[in-house]
């Protein structure tokens, strides 16, 4: 199957420290191993983005969250179960990820992906992957493959060859931030 071939190619690139353009459960993304600081730095350079503005990390299921976050608030588990669209949560006390992926306040933005390709990719790779929009910093988010600039496509090690002609009803995920006191706020509805 085509999806199996593309996952195999993408896993090899990720294991070799490369970066990819791939479909996610929201918009087209640029990704790499979330534990590889050199690969993450390449994405910052490609996007022309300041390192103070970090990226989202995708995991394949809820069980992976505690491998990369200390003290997940109980309400986070409820939100993950009840939300019917993609939900990114900014957690406190990130761990086991590349330092240049974790914000200065020790937080990390993480989403459990529901997309078949990215979910299987993470499962086969065995680690979380970075997810940032496949565009130059400040440019429009690529809702379709054709909206990704040639500069981005040429700057990565692999462009996943799936869903290039699809038009999904997609948009960036909802983002919720947890505070140290246990309260949370919606950053992006």
Largest sheet: 9 strands, mixed
Helix content: 25-40%
**SSE string, helices as H and strands as E:** HEEHEHHEEHEHEEE
Tell me, briefly, the overall form.
globular
CATH architecture label:
Alpha-Beta Complex
Structural class, by secondary structure, is: alpha/beta
**C-alpha-based Rg, rounded:** 15 Å
Structural features:
nine-stranded mixed β-sheet; 6 helices; 28% helix; 189 residues; globular; DHBP synthase; 9 strands; alpha/beta; single chain
Structural summary, described in words:
The chain is α/β, with parallel strands linked by helices. The chain has a single domain, classed as DHBP synthase (Alpha-Beta Complex). Helix content is 28%, strand content 20%. It has six helices and nine strands; from the N terminus they run αββαβααββαβαβββ. It has helices spanning 2-15, 37-47, 65-68, 74-82, 116-125, 150-154, and strands at residues 20-22, 29-31, 56-59, 87-91, 108-112, 129-133, 158-159, 174-178, 184-188. It has a nine-stranded mixed sheet with strand order 7-1-2-6-3-5-4-8-9, sandwiched between helices. It is globular and about 45 Å long.
Please outline what is shown here.
The protein is of the alpha/beta class.
Please render the helix and strand layout as text.
Elements: H1 2-15, E1 20-22, E2 29-31, H2 37-47, E3 56-59, H3 65-68, H4 74-82, E4 87-91, E5 108-112, H5 116-125, E6 129-133, H6 150-154, E7 158-159, E8 174-178, E9 184-188
Helix pairs in contact: 1-5
